[in-house]
Specification:
The protein has 242 residues and is α/β, with parallel strands linked by helices. The protein has helices spanning 26-38, 60-71, 103-124, 155-178, 210-223, and strands at 17-21, 43-47, 77-82, 134-139, 182-188, 231-234. Bound molecules: NADP nicotinamide-adenine-dinucleotide phosphate.
Length: 242
């Protein structure tokens, strides 16, 4: 990895499994590479639409099949990071004003940024072990913060990430009842060079390399303990307002 020594991730019990959803994305791929390099996990598995097992957020059956695959692997699932996400495509751009809101764009953003990750929680959170540290982290975004919203716009992205944060929070509370050592986090990766962010990078705003972001996010995950369960943190570990 760029920018320092290999991460040790010593807070995680040895011999577990780490899984990344959205492993083809800029941040997801960098997370996958860093986790493999750490040597802390018995297996590091990348899940994606084009991979095997296939993981498509729009298809619950294949999410369930991917979870069964991971459940069948030797070792406990100690770390799951959801690095999927949607901001724009050929049909939809972030809305600058109310006039641009469309039901189709709202539905698409919610399907990918909120409902899909909720289905990942439904199928993968039950795989976390009852004892010892385990983490389920989902990549949210600071713009999903209602308290921090000073610029407006980006209705569907902001709202779908706010919904994601709420879902993550409920899942964290439910999971802690049976698994007090498990930690669920919503993480803001900061501005990172990627296809998702490229068209929107403001002049003067420094986008970090995905490798640096992955390193910082994994350091946050490594430092996290049960007291952080259900929180919204940035890549420095600072608590963000909901
Ligand atoms: N980059 C930034 O500056 C920034 C800032 C704040 C938050 N974030 C958040 O960080 C996360 C990762 O962003 P990124 O910059 O790495 O974006 P990216 O490079 O565009 O990666 C997005 C990932 O989502 C996957 N994905 C899209 N639709 C999917 C579906 N239907 N099923 C399964 N996977 C699907 C993509 O898979 P395919 O390869 O199959 O398309 C890809 O792996 C997102 O949640 C984003 O909102 C990023």
């Amino acid at each position: 990895m760029t920018g320092g020594t290999t991460l040790q991730l010593h807070s995680f019990p040895e011999g577990g499994i780490a899984a990344i959803a959205g492993a083809t994305g800029a941040i997801g791929n960098a997370l996958l590479t860093a986790l493999k390099a750490s040597g802390r996990f018995r297996e590091v598995i990348g899940l994606s639409r084009g991979g095997s097992p296939r993981l498509d957020l729009l298809d619950e059956e294949c999410i369930a099949t991917a979870a069964q695959h991971v459940a069948g692997m030797k070792g406990d699932l100690r770390l799951f990071i959801d690095a999927t996400g949607f901001l724009y495509n050929d049909a939809f751009s972030p809305e600058k004003s109310l006039k641009q809101i469309s039901a189709a764009q709202m539905a698409h953003a919610f399907a990918l940024n909120a409902t899909g990750p909720a289905l990942l929680m439904k199928h993968f959170l039950p795989l976390l072990p009852r004892e010892g540290k385990s983490v389920f982290a989902t990549l949210s975004a600071r713009v999903g913060s209602i308290g921090d919203n000073k610029a407006g716009g980006w209705y569907s992205y902001r709202a779908s990430k706010a919904a994601l944060n709420q879902i993550l929070r409920s899942a964290a509370i439910e999971t802690a009842r049976r698994k007090p050592d498990a930690i669920c986090l919503a993480l803001h990766p900061g501005t990172v060079e990627s296809p998702l962010s490229a068209p929107f990078q403001k002049k003067g705003l420094i986008a970090r390399a995905p490798e640096s972001a992955a390193r910082e996010l994994l350091a946050v995950v490594d430092r996290a303990d049960a007291g952080n369960n259900g929180s919204f943190l940035d890549y420095k570990g600072e608590v963000l307002p909901w």
